[in-house]
Amino acid sequence: MFADGSGGPGLERRARAALSAAVAHAVASQRPDGSWSVPAGPRVLETAVAVLALRQAEGPGSVPAEALRWLAERAEVQQHHPAVAAADRWLLALALRPSRPPPLAEPPPDDPTLTRRHLLLHTVAVATGAPGADPGRLLETSVGALGPDRGAGLKGWQRTVLLAAELLAHHALGPPVPPQVRRALEAEQAGDGSFHTMALTTAVACLALACTAPGHPAVRAAAGQLRRSRDPRSGWGLGTFDVWDTALMVRCLRGRPEFDARALPAALSFLEHTQGPDGGWGSASPLVAGQGLASDNDTTGTVLLALAGSPQGSRVWPAARAYAATRQRPDGLWTTWQSSDDTPAQDVVAHLAAGIDAHRRRGDGSPDTAPARRWLVERHRADGRWQADWYGYPAYPAAEIAPLLGRESPELAREAARLAAAQRPDGGWPRLDGEDSASPAATALAVTALLHSLRPVPPGALVRALRFLVESRREEGDWPEPGPAMFGPRPFLSDVPAQNHALTCRGLAALVAATGPADPTDPFGPTGPAARR
């Protein structure tokens, strides 16, 4: 029970049972190689573009009926952002009524993120001949974005989309299409047919190549990869990110006896062996698709946190330390990607700085993380709150940044006060600020942040949160979410089941620990029969 005796032994036992079932669910879903590799849920963006690509590459009859049925009957337009809602509606109409393509909306206001998303939509519009498409403008935009180095300093998937746009613009303006543009796009393709592991980039590249070089082996390979990567019951989603899912699962579930005994050793081994030649980690390994994704600083920091205190961590640290040192900017911060147009993100900086601190040894030449801590404090003072790049959950920034700054952080105390005031009457927290429906993962992140803070939390608030998590769990041991919450590509949201499960388990475990010492006769306690199975 909590310190004031609230909650009662019945809720406490149910909470331990829920946690045990959730851990068992996680253990059962681990792959033989030690990873978790759960595809993101289907959404309109990838499914519509993949349908258009397959239709162009192999003919109208080649489009999987299940994908069309999902788009027509079950797909939901994302409503959290007007530009995303407009894009989803346009893509749905384009994929379901190809003979009557709707006009492309005007470009959004001057916002770099929305401009990049509109370029992707403009590329699809040019490929399909939709009203409002302007191949001349698309050519100018794509060539300008690629720059004199032809995109060498950009993210691989960003370069792929720009090359596809340039290729389609040339094709629409009339032959000849410069062969060097097509060769550059083909060079982005991996051996399994994918383009940087993701369905969206693969579909856009397939669409461009199918329009300009029908029957080319690269088209057949991309179409084949799209078919293999589809959810058989629906369509396509963002992708599969086995390294990130595994690192997050380890971070959130390590310490639970069943997880440590049955899942942790293989997971740590997987993370050790997916370290890249540069010393970092990408979110998807070559085991998922092709050559995997290039190392990024967020995944590297999260893996370092997962490997902290382990023999595997000691072995990977020298190369990881060198990676972190070479990626640190002169101001002491880190961007997410190895990309010339990227800027530091608060959750990314916190992850890599905390990962470095978890491994550093006196005099080992580790990068200085003090500038990162100062910057995070300054950002909070300037904006009044922390902000994250990767998840829309309101408590995610505080839950991830707090461990780097420590429990005494006054910024964390202010975050805790804000979070405490946002709790709903049913005990949960919303998926996104301002929403009505409560989210298990958002609730778990909120209690993670609240319990890390030294600011007193009313026990009644914790009891309500615990009851919400216990009562919203499904019989299978996991939790349903009201909607997607991971950004990718921003501002589109993606549903990532393994990540949601890990984050929810961490919050529930923190609440169970806050109830006090386990009853040794409790079958769901850390030493009871449920934990020993």
Task: Describe this entry's structure for a reader.
The chain has 533 residues and is mainly α. Helices cover 56% and strands 2% of the residues. It has 23 helices and four strands. The strands form two sheets. Strands 1-2 form a two-stranded antiparallel sheet. A two-stranded antiparallel sheet has the order 3-4. Helix 5 crosses helix 6 (135-146) and helix 16 runs antiparallel to helix 17 (370-383). The two termini are 25 Å apart. Residues 518-533 have low confidence and may be disordered.
Structural class label: mainly alpha
**Count of individual beta strands:** 4
Described by the principal axes of the CA atoms, the overall outline is: globular
| Mean pLDDT level | 93
Strand order of the largest sheet: 1-2
Strand-residue proportion: under 5%
What Rg do the Cα atoms give?
24 Å
* End-to-end distance: 25 Å
DSSP helical segment count: 23
Order of helices and strands: HHHHHHHHHHHHHHHHHHHEEHHEEHH
Helical residue percent band: 55-70%
Low-confidence segments: 518-533
Could you describe the largest sheet, including whether it forms a barrel? 2 strands, antiparallel
In brief:
The protein has 533 residues and is mainly alpha-helical.
